[in-house]
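re the bet — no i am not wrong, look at it urself. input seq straight from the record:
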Amino acid sequence: MLGLTIVELYSKAHMYILGINAVFHDSSACIFKDGILLAAAEDERFTQIKHGKRPVPFSTYELPYHAIDYCLKVAGITLKDVDHIAYSFNPYLLIDEDKARDPLTLIPFQPTASLKEVAEVNPWNNLFLSSILNAPGQLVDGYPHHLQKRFLNAKETDWSWHWVDHHLAHAASAFYPAPYEEAAILTMDGRGEIATTTYNIGQQNHITRLAEVGLPNSLGLLYEQITSHLGFLHSSDEYKVMALASYGKPVFVKDFREMIQIRDNGQYTINNLHFEERFGPKRLRHEDFTAHHFNIAHSLQKVLEETALELVQWLHEQTKVDNLTMAGGVALNCVLNARIRDRGPFKNIWVQPASGDSGTALGAAMHIDIQERKPDSKAFIMSHAYWGPEYTDAEIGKFLDWAKVPYKKMENVAMETAKILAEDKIIGWFQGRMEYGPRALGSRSILASPIHPDMQRRLNEVKDREDFRPVAPVVLEEDAATWFKDGSVSPYMLFIYDVAEDKKGKIPAVEHTDGTARIQTINRDQHPLYYDLISEFKKLTGVPVLVNTSFNTLSKPIVCTPRDAIACFWTSPFDVLVMGSYLIEKEHADENFGSNSNLQESEITDTMS
């Protein structure tokens, strides 16, 4: 250690683990210090490119540099100070290891096929895999120039690089941050390296794989393919199919039951798809929806739920534990999660809020952290999803002044905003640390009153999205059971509940066509200002519920920075923006509004970027 500076000695006294997800979509990063999560975010929030990138073979080289830069900033270190990097994909499950030394001449590992057959079936395989294997080098010399500060002078030898099985990363993200010492773990997504579904048991700090289902059999890929058939964008719009399903009837249940064949030992096969033969021509994006499309979505959702319940029953028989944790893209299906909760054999269920691929950065990092530190007990339990960037009131004020945006400074943010909401105005709400995962949970949200039945239509117009899309409620945790049947703690909007019989008609904006709502519960420890706002709204209206939808518009990610929020606000038809303690309205400024100052651009660079 001789020759190191005091700063270097201090940094070496701690273990920093950087988690990276970059292979398919929802590129993300997180960072742990001595087993404690410091920051986590998706790259899309910084680049404003939805999902970060498309899941195509030639995009594998794109790393989440902006999310990594943010994580390093929160940790107060640079890339060369990181001890371990956990990458949530293991290419060695797919390649001939003897050829891995030369990534340009990789031979995909497919023992049942000749090399000629492999090349003919998927000519992108070598590019896909070589880009993954070259990720360590790309990390140190491929970063955008404006992020140079935290990447400069880093070398591949500065850290230990770990390839983590994609589904192990999902499983780790589901179990290690969950509030259980022992639990069954179910992961379901489109695909990892080979697996598409895995069954595991977690005990304290150890995960054991019980069984897995491999390609080409995948419930996630089936859902993606139907998403495309219905005219949506696969690997992006699956949640729209879930919403569409509520309007249909089980006309095509028999077809989907023929496609999905459940076998013994948690196995299933998917075959005989032939969508156009079964369902007719694919819907084009701008064609009208018909009852036929609703029925396809409904039938798919119903059979998915039936299948998952059988798989969960098998997992329970194998593990004989009370708790279930879930991750993988399929675990973002809140209707499915509720069916497993209500009809499955487990007493408790916990779903990780960033269950899609973005959460694999978290799981990969936690897996390596436990391997390296070997702790006796869990060091980190996830109780909220607020792990992204935040901006102080001073930073927000500087930006507004620099951008010459008129504003009013509020004395009591919760009370004054509640009054605006009670007037049926739609507000952009920008407070505290940004959410990790696909759901807006009160930090980067559009909020409104749920009392007027027209609010759902107005919000869909504001966001320029399909009329059939529901909007979701946030409810005070202590009032959840009063307003929603069997309402329980649900902080991540990952389960649906029926609106209570005596409350139907009182919050029509958030009541879906089937009488359900995808609720978020909130307590004061999780987000004090958000909780206080809803409490003030309850005092004014008697309703402890608000509409909460994500602060974004069509095909754009949730806003991240004050600049993103202002751009979205001024180009969208909603009424008010509340950012920190600042109120921005689409009206002429009066004498109470802030005046513009002569701040230099350099003073607010961090606020904008």
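see?? The CA atoms of residues 341 and 536 lie 32 Å apart. told u. also The longest strand covers residues 195-203. so pay up
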